[in-house]
Amino acid sequence: MIDISLRNKILILFLSLIVISSITTIAAVLLATNNSVEQQAQDKLKVGLRVFEQIMDIRANQLFESAEVLTADFGFKAAVLDKDEQTLISVLENHGARIDADLMMLASLDGKLLASTEATTQETKSFPFTDLLSEARKEGGLMKTVMLNGKAYQMLMLQVNAPVPVAWAVIGFLIDRNLANQLKELTNLEVSFTAIYRDSQTLNISTLPLDKNHSSMTKEAWQRILWDDNEYLALLSPLVDGGYYQVNTILSTSLDEAFARFSPLKIQILSISGIALLISVIMGFFIARNVTRPVNTLVTAAQRISSGDYSEQIATGQYKYNEIGKLASSFDRMQHEIADREEKILYQAYHDALTGLANRSSAQHHVEEHLKHHQQVEQSFALVCINLQKFKQVNDTFGYQIGDQLLQAFAQKLEEISPPECTPARLGGDEFLLVLNDINEDTLSDELETVLDALNTNYCIASLEIPVSVRLGASIYPEHGFRTDQLLRRADIALNAAKAKELSASIYEQGSEEKHLHQIRLVDDLKIAISEDQLTMFYQPKVDLHQKRVTQVESLIRWFHPELGFIAPDEFIGLAEQSGLMPSLSRWVIRNVLNDCMDWKSQGFELVMAVNISAYDLAHDDLPDYVFGLLKELKLKPDDLILEVTESAVMQDPKQALMILTRFREQGIKLAIDDYGTGYSSLSQLKSLPVDELKIDMSFVLKLDQNKDDQAIVQSTIEMGHCLGLNIVAEGVESRESWALLEGYGCDKLQGYYISKPQNSANFIQWFKDYDVVNEYSQELS
């Protein structure tokens, strides 16, 4: 047995411990470093993917807003109806140039190409996206990534309504190297776009110095790949999988470069370990105590960094100027640089680019935090949705630059009035969100008034004084909900209620959501009912007291829902006006009424058809052209139709209404003022309108034989109307006594349930055949 001294035993034991400790420490640091590098690479790719999705959403919103502007343009609609290809191409090119669109097309509803800025399709005259039309019709439009001539486009397909759908407008942004470079500048990642068409790669765009065919990549999200002898970590995200073609986005970052940054650190660690082993013979304990402790600190720091925590500074202490200190300083600089880069990327992902306010995603997160806090302290708070009224008019009048500056000034004002602990947000367009703490139903109304006073003011933009007025909709936690999505939705419902009732502010009322969902369903079903002819026309006769026969009928629309049963006109007509369906509904009514008129004429029944039109119809300049074209198509005369419009509809925009009514009158179509006496027009306004008839509202006629005041009003109205040269119609005749009084006053026509209730076309014709006014006079009152 070899005799080893205690000193040597202690030295050998200590050296063994030093060797084992050094190896373990180095392995731990290297493992933590490698894990940190890979974790950082994955986090970097995830953040990059979120930024890319934000960019695609922004481009999608730009496409939608641009498409709405294009399809709403009157000149463009006229060009579509005229099918003037050169004009259409010119409009598409001009509009595309304004928004930097790479693809502009117009196709007919059946998929025939009408115009295109893309050379190949313009030459072949073929519309390349006919296979998407059915999906677009079903959805009312389509946003999708598509392939065309070996290029990928982010494309929006939207209907052109004039006012019924007449064509499909297609607008697209090219997915190209510019987009890849833009994303690379934002994320410092390598970006590639690939497309596989029938198992053959047709598109390969990459920011890498050496383009590589990506067709060999699998559909796995995370992959390690070798490009040009460098190892990369890649994240594959499919943009579209169309069956026979697939477009992918590949974000990648070099693992070699990431690991290379740590090479000096690895060399330093090995050097330090070697020096420690040489000196350990003399100063073993000192080296063990002073090297292991800081190395362990670095291991902890590396693990903390790999978990995404960059907030704690790495302390160097007494080792500030040696190798361990340099290593710690390098780690510290690395974590600060990573934190700064990630902070910039996250800021862009969670803030509105124009105003700097929190965006919708960030707002939802802040509301979640409010919910957690207020659940603990058992306090309430309110969410207030804010809408800038008539903001579109600012854009239309002063331009989008002034509109953007107004939004920025408004956002600044919103930040000034927000509580310090609450973050205001821009939800999109001209809608914002404000959070108010310690609010209940008793104090909310006063707080909303304070907000209105602060926001309803003039904003000085580029030497312009622009007045701003807002509408508010509010919901309260916990009275109106316990979830973020529920509170936001109900605040939005309250805002819609404020718009519908023309109020400055509205607080959510219990049961409004169910009513809102019911109304949404009715609007959706009404679209279908109009397009599929599920509505029915009823007719109520008007008796001409001079000719002693029925000469006119009033057309009344009815909706018998297949599931909900009868829907009252007062309910669905109001929804049609609010949802923009009124023009389509009115045109459906006019066409069906005139079709019935033509059918009755073929049977020998000559009756004038009265149709009601609303204020929304008078706002469309093309309504007269539509009616004139329909009369010509059905070979009917202008005097076969009389249009009835209420006083209130005329007074919403008297100048516009007078212009439209004058065009109808000039073409020989008779006009009537409906529900006279319930509006607020003056006699001077009445005499300026080009009308032929005055219909006394039924509220004055229903109990005419019993109410002396009604008799005085009706008699004076008839005399006044005759003095103005108007025929007078009394609606709401319920008795023979009222008939006799009206005839005695000189009324020209009568309408009401005493004569006949409204009936469908077939029943009305049968009633008309059997009805004889002379019988009324054979039953003279005693």
UniProtKB/TrEMBL annotation:
GO terms for biological process: signal transduction. Pfam families: EAL (PF00563), GGDEF (PF00990), HAMP (PF00672). GO terms for cellular component: membrane. Signal peptide: none annotated. SMART domains: EAL (SM00052), GGDEF (SM00267), HAMP (SM00304). Keywords: Membrane, Transmembrane, Transmembrane helix. InterPro entries: Cyclic-di-GMP_PDE-like (IPR050706), EAL_dom (IPR001633), EAL_sf (IPR035919), GGDEF_dom (IPR000160), HAMP_dom (IPR003660), Nucleotide_cyclase (IPR029787), Rev_trsase/Diguanyl_cyclase (IPR043128). CDD domains: EAL (cd01948), GGDEF (cd01949), HAMP (cd06225). Residues 519-772 form the EAL domain. The chain crosses the membrane at residues 12-32, 269-288. GO terms for molecular function: cyclic-guanylate-specific phosphodiesterase activity. Residues 289-343 form the HAMP domain. PANTHER family: CYCLIC DI-GMP PHOSPHODIESTERASE PDEF (PTHR33121), OXYGEN SENSOR PROTEIN DOSP (PTHR33121:SF71). This is Phosphodiesterase. The lineage of its organism: Bacteria, Pseudomonadati, Pseudomonadota, Gammaproteobacteria, Oceanospirillales.
